[in-house]
């Protein structure tokens, strides 16, 4: 892959250190909590792919519908010669955009998985001779230094992942994205929209129990990596709609009083019967709220596209003063 370059900003022990820190903090916190990024080991990624195919889970299909219908419009509006994708994974959805961008010079995928970055680059370079891929092995929630590449740039943040950040975290993240942008650059962001509670809860608590297994996978990760003795059967998967905050909360609820030992941390964690670990928040949005959050970060929302059913939105925003 002559047109492939990879820059590492994470050392080989970064994930282990972060896991130790998050588990120690989260399981000694009141209430208990764990960040959702620890769902995604190999098994967790397989389960999430299965979730995206479930009839109840609409966001992936809705976002893909918008991308397929609007890719050329997005390409024209942005005029991008560099495409930066935060949390790129397999880069599958981004292919729709790349195919609609004949003038694209450079693709910059950003992910914490080197194998995902290399695999996606190999596929894309085979499909698009002449495309340059400069991958960043990095955590997109931290400030990034992007490689030199021709502008304008389009930074892409898909999947509704912005909803996994709490409001103060979203403010910091959007400000960091704004800091990456020069005049003429843009941000394309996916947001799941507020809708009927029954539809939302079903999307996170499917009838087949795939999401329940996905949620409990975080315990399997801690067992394997930190020598814990969680028994997944001791916990129930819970998904609830928080009407006040307008977000879904995924939790793991202890079925009875129990004690868990985590050898690598020399930690003993007691659970009362019914005590919960918050494992994910997934905020749902309204257009005006998205506009306001972007504006606080110095970004002006210029385009708003939804799927036909109005379930999911892609927004295009530009740095203040950069709109043509």
Features:
324 residues; four-stranded mixed beta sheet; 9 helices; 14 strands; 35% helix
Describe this structure in words.
By secondary structure, the protein is of the alpha/beta class. It has helices spanning 14-27, 42-52, 59-78, 94-99, 114-127, 167-180, 197-203, 210-226, 287-296, and strands at 4-8, 32-33, 82-86, 106-111, 132-137, 153-157, 186-192, 235-242, 247-254, 258-262, 267-271, 276-283, 299-306, 312-319. The strands form three sheets. An eight-stranded mixed sheet has the order 1-5-4-3-6-7-14-13, with helices on both faces. The longest helix has 20 residues, at 59-78. The model has no long low-confidence stretch (mean pLDDT 94).
User: What Rg, in angstroms, do the CA atoms define?
Assistant: 20 Å
Distance between the termini: 37 Å
Q: How many strands in all?
A: 14
Unreliably modeled segments? none
Quick check: average pLDDT?
A: 94
Main β-sheet, in a few words? Answer: 8 strands, mixed
In which range does the helix fraction lie? 25-40%
| Category by helix and strand content | alpha/beta
* Tertiary shape: globular
Q: What amount of the residues lies in strands?
A: 25-35%
Total DSSP helices: 9
């Amino acid at each position: 892959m002559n047109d492939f370059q990879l820059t590492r900003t994470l050392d080989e022990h970064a994930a282990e250190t972060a896991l130790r820190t998050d588990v120690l903090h989260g399981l000694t916190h009141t209430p208990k909590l764990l960040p959702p990024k620890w769902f995604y080991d190999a098994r967790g990624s397989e389960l999430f792919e299965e979730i995206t195919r479930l009839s109840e889970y609409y966001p992936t299909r809705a976002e893909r519908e918008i991308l397929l219908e609007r890719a050329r419009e997005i390409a024209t509006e942005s005029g991008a010669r560099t495409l930066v994708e935060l949390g790129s994974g397999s880069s599958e959805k981004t292919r729709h955009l790349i195919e609609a961008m004949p003038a694209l010079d450079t693709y910059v995928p950003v992910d914490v998985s080197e194998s995902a970055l290399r695999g996606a680059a190999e596929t894309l370079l085979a499909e698009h001779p002449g495309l340059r891929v400069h991958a960043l092995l990095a955590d997109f929630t931290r400030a990034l230094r992007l490689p030199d590449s021709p502008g304008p740039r389009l930074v892409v943040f898909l999947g509704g992942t912005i909803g996994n950040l709490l409001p103060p975290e979203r403010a910091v993240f959007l400000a960091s994205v704004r800091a990456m942008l020069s005049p003429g650059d843009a941000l394309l962001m996916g947001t799941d929209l507020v809708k009927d509670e029954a539809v939302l809860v079903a999307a996170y608590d499917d009838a087949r129990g795939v999401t329940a297994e996905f949620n409990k996978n975080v315990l399997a990760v801690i067992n394997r990596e930190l020598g814990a003795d969680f028994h997944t059967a001791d916990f129930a998967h819970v998904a609830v709609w928080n009407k006040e905050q307008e977000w879904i909360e995924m939790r793991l609820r202890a079925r009875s009083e129990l004690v868990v030992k985590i050898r690598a941390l020399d930690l003993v964690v007691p659970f009362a019967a019914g005590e919960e670990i918050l494992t994910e928040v997934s905020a749902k949005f309204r257009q005006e709220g998205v506009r306001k959050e972007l504006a606080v970060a110095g970004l002006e929302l210029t385009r708003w596209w939804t799927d036909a059913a109005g379930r999911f939105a892609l927004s295009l925003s530009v740095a203040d003063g950069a709109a043509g």
